[in-house]
Structure formats: structure tokens, C-alpha cells
Write a structure and sequence with these properties.
- The chain is mostly loops and 57 residues long.
- Helix content is 0%, strand content 0%.
- The radius of gyration is 29 Å and the shape is rod-shaped.
Length: 57
């Protein structure tokens, strides 16, 4: 009886999709001009959480 052929190899895994770009931070508003008074404008802080993409193998 003839020998049985070997099993074919497993196909490769598809590539991972690209990560989306991070949005830009908004600019700070201008400070108004006043006389004989003291005040402060707090700076705007914006944080963009980075997108994480994981492909389970």
C-alpha cells in the first residue's frame, strides 16, 4: 500500500489594520484687556486617549 501524503501547511494570519490618527488639541482663547483689576485665565487642557487595536491570534 502506498504511503499517505503529508498534511498541508496552515495559512498565514491577515495583517492588522492601521491605527487612526490622534485629533489635534484646540487652541487657547485670547486674554481680554482690563485695567485696575487682577484675574487669571486657566489654560485649557485636552487629552486624547490613544486608540488601541488588538487582533487575537
Amino acid at each position: 500500500m502506498g504511503r499517505q501524503g503529508g498534511q498541508g501547511g496552515q495559512g498565514g494570519q491577515g495583517g492588522q489594520g492601521g491605527q487612526g490618527g490622534q485629533g489635534g488639541q484646540g487652541g487657547q482663547g485670547g486674554q481680554g484687556r482690563l485695567t485696575n483689576s487682577q484675574f487669571s485665565i486657566s489654560k485649557q487642557q485636552t487629552t486624547n486617549d490613544k486608540q488601541q487595536i488588538t487582533n487575537d491570534k
